[in-house]
Specification:
The chain has 207 residues and is mostly helical. It has eight helices and three strands. Helix 4 runs antiparallel to helix 5, helix 4 runs antiparallel to helix 7 and helix 6 runs antiparallel to helix 7.
């Protein structure tokens, strides 16, 4: 089953509608519109990384909520499992927000291929974000009873929610622009392919 009747497409459209109804995009656009002119011009010039950072902040809140909700209840003895589930939930939120806002002016791929690449990149990001927590717990042994509960919780937060998140965010921004949303749409509605080394060298040689 393909096209509009595909359950996967219906699910994606449903997630998009949910995000739009939540008001996240409307609030973000309103904030940009209220900025002073110099700051607004700067924000528009660097809109992609700023939007990506805002989406990352939203996903970070989702990640924290799910992570600690699971870690302090059902998955208390399995923090890495809790982290993986939290990242998966945050990834779904991140895909919808990035597709509909951060990289709205980019395209170049069919939606199903785009989604598959997004989740592949996010899978690598999942490994990168979970690795510092794994190292903290099972290499440095920063867990009870080796250390105090307070030390364990601080180490968990720093390794999983700060270091892991930052590493994964930098990787994902680079990978999303390069592979998932490679082409930039022109004002006329067409698509301008991302420059390649061959085209860059050719244009440089013509000057």
């Amino acid at each position: 089953m393909t096209g509009r009747n595909c359950p996967r497409n219906r699910g994606t459209r449903g997630a998009v509608r949910l995000v739009r109804r939540s008001g996240v995009l409307r609030i973000a656009n309103a904030v940009v519109a209220r900025l002073p002119e110099p700051l607004r011009a700067l924000a528009l010039k660097h809109r992609e990384p700023l939007k990506f950072a805002a989406v990352g902040g939203t996903a970070f809140l989702v990640d924290n909520t799910v992570f600690y909700g699971l870690k302090l209840t059902f998955l208390e003895p399995k923090p890495v499992t809790a982290k993986i589930i939290a990242v998966l939930v945050a990834t779904i939120v991140s895909y919808v927000l990035n597709r509909e806002w951060s990289f709205r002016t980019r395209g170049g791929r069919e939606r199903r291929h785009e989604a598959a690449l997004f989740f592949l990149v996010s899978g690598v990001g999942l490994v990168l974000s979970s690795a510092p927590l794994w190292i903290s717990r099972y290499v440095f042994r920063l867990e009870t009873p080796e250390v105090s509960l307070l030390t364990q919780e601080i180490a968990d937060f720093m390794s999983a929610q700060i270091i892991g998140t930052l590493i994964a965010m930098v990787f994902r921004f680079w990978a999303l622009r390069k592979w998932v949303f490679p082409d930039e749409k022109t004002e006329s509605g067409g698509v301008r392919p991302a420059p390649t080394p061959d085209s860059t060298s050719t244009s440089g040689g013509q000057r």
